[in-house]
Model the fold of this input.
Amino acid sequence: MSALVADDRTLHQRISLDLEAQIRSGAWPPGHRIPFEYELTAQYGCARATVNKAVSSLVAAGLIERRRRAGSFVARPHLQSAVLQIPDIQAEVTRRGQAYSYDLLGRRPRRIHPADPDEAHLGVHGPVLELRCRHLAEGRPFAVEHRIISLAAAPEAAEADFAAAPPGTWLLQHVAWTEAEHRISAVNPDAATARLLKVRVSDACLSLRRWTWRVGQGITYVRQIFPGDAYDLVARFTPGAG
Done:
């Protein structure tokens, strides 16, 4: 390998890592326009092709999106899923024409619990923010939520006012993600959850567990429990659809 090729590869990787660091830190939030390629070319004193290669790698990873004649922007969270979208509960309730309200039931920083399989599946180590809350529609309990947010992936969450903004809404607006996993099941609530949802422990509820990552870095794990009549899972598909 020639020294020129080696230097180009090293610089392309460094530019890519520099841009990714701005995104991961939250300095460049979703929707932020990154510098034009000619600006990065001048900044790094390199060929335009080297910058293009660095930006293209972040486009492929889902962190940056290109808009024709407008430039490149930090990607907004992608909401489409094969089974269901990542729901913004506040927006969903409002879209139904109902009044939304929200109770923050608990908040505490702590370390990850590696022995908990749900938390271990997120693949993070170190400090997290644990939140417990309840969502209401027209004053009726709509969902109970237990969530952890990795403070390595979203350090600004440590200072966010989750008494005013639901954590799911805040994350969708502030933290880009590239991969998500849902696990959905029917459950009977425990006594504490039943009291919060104002249902019986014998009533069927829907349990939604979700993990999100950004280029392999765990962001958040959440478990939401809905009364059985409060949420529908809808998917439209065709025969043989992949």
Q: What stands out?
A: Confidence is low (pLDDT under 50) at residues 1-8, 77-84. The helical segments are 3-24, 37-44, 48-60, 89-95, 117-122, 167-174, 191-197. DSSP finds seven helices and eight strands in the chain. The CA atoms of residues 156 and 236 lie 37 Å apart.
